[in-house]
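Team,

Forwarding the record for the chain on the shared tracking sheet. I've put the sequence and predicted structure together so nobody has to dig through attachments.
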Amino acid sequence: MDSASTLQQVVESGAFQELSPQLKVALFLGGMAFLSSALVTMTAFTRIVIVLSFVRRALATQEIPPTQVILGLSLFLTFFVMGPTFSTIETDAIKPYLEEKIDGEVAFHNASNAVHGFMLAQTRRDDIALFAKMAETGDIQTAADTPMRVLVPAYVISELKTAFIMGFCLYIPFMLIDLVVSVILMSLGMMMMPPMIISTPFKILLFVMVDGWMLIARVLSLSFH
C-alpha cells in the first residue's frame, strides 16, 4: 500500500509528465514488480486459489493437481473474471494515454476507478465500516468515496470469508463419503484399515461423474456477478 501511494503521488504531482520517454519506460518496468501484490490483493485471484486449494484437500489427493497447475488455473480464471475490468482500464486509461489524449494523472485515476468499482462490488459493508472506523476516515457519504487504503484490506477480508464459505460447502459431500466408508468398515470389523484408502477412489469417481472441475470453474466465475 505504501508503494501504491507513492506511485499515486508521483503521478498526481505532474512530475511524471516531465520525464523523458526512456525514464517513463524504466519507471513502468519498475512498477511491474508490484503487480504480484496487486494481483493477490486487488483481483479475483485470492478467492479462486483458496477454493481450488480446498477442492484438492477435500479430494485427499495430496499434491494432485500439482501446485503449479492450481496456480496456473487460478491465474487464467482470474483473467477471465477480471476481463470486463481490464477492458475498461484499457479503453479508459491505457489506450488514451498511449495516444496522448489524456495525461498520466487522468489515466491513473481512470484505472483506479475501474479496480475500485470491482472491489467495491465484492466487499461487504461491515468490512468497509470496520476498516473505515479504524482508519478514522469519518462518515463515508457514498460508496465511491471509499478510499483505497480502506477498501483494499476490507476487500481481502471479504474474499477470505467468501472463499472459506465456499470451501466448507465443498467439503460436505466428501466428508459424507468418508463417514459412510468409516461406518461400513466398522460394521465389517475392519477397524484397522484407514478409511481414506477406500474413500479416496470414491471421491475421485464422484468428482469425475459430476464433472467437478467444470462446476467449480462455473461457480467461481458466477460468484463474482
